[in-house]
Each structure stands twice: as structure tokens, then as C-alpha cells.
Amino acid sequence: FLEPVDPSKVAGYAEAIKRPMDFGTITTKVAKGKYRSLEEFAADFHLVISNAKSFNPPGTIYHAEAERIE
After folding, report:
1. pLDDT at 11
2. 20 in helix, strand or coil?
3. How many Cβ atoms are within 10 Å of 62's Cβ, its own excluded?
4. 22 in helix, strand or coil?
5. How does pLDDT run across 9-67, given as a tens digit for each residue?
6. Which DSSP category does 42 fall into?
7. Domains in the chain, please, with CATH?
């Protein structure tokens, strides 16, 4: 979740996830003052979780961790 998923290393990711987001990108956006509201920040946070849960099936570590931090 910390870095962007590399679609060249993860088959089908680019086709399945239309709005990728990761915590590293969120950190950069915070540091650069890109968020205009707490709601924008929260939307990106929830997008990380949603992407992880939709791409990774239940029972995988990625899905489980997404649920844990949700």
C-alpha cells in the first residue's frame, strides 16, 4: 500500500483499477499541500482500501490488511 502498484509486474491491475492510489502518493500530496479539504484526503485514503479489496480476493493478505485498516 505504500508505493504505487507497478502494472508491468501485476497482471490485470491497470485494467481492473482505473484510479490507482497509494499511501506514498498521499504523503507526497500532503507535503505539497495538494489537498483542499479533509474530505479529499479521506477519499484518497478510502480509494487505497477500496482498490486493494476489489483487486485482491478475500483470503489474501492484501485484502485482509485492507479490511484491518479500513
Report:
1. 96
2. coil
3. 14
4. coil
5. 999 999 999 999 999 999 999 999 999 999 999 999 999 999 999 999 999 999 999 99
6. H
7. 13-69 (1.20.920.10)
Task: Record the cell numbers describing residue 11, joined without a space.
Answer: 497482471
What whole-number distance in Å separates Cα of residue 47 and Cα of residue 1?
11
Q: Please give the pLDDT value at position 41.
A: 99
**Amino acid present at 5:** V
Extract the C-alpha cell encoding 38.
Answer: 479533509
- The pLDDT assigned to 50 comes to 98
Amino acid at 12: G
Residues contacting residue 62 through CB under 8 Å, at least 6 positions apart = 52, 55, 56
Residue 59, amino acid:
G
Name the grid cell of 52. Answer: 486493494
Question: What pTM was computed for the model?
Answer: 0.92
Q: How many residues does the chain have?
A: 70
The Cα 36–Cα 65 span in angstroms is 28
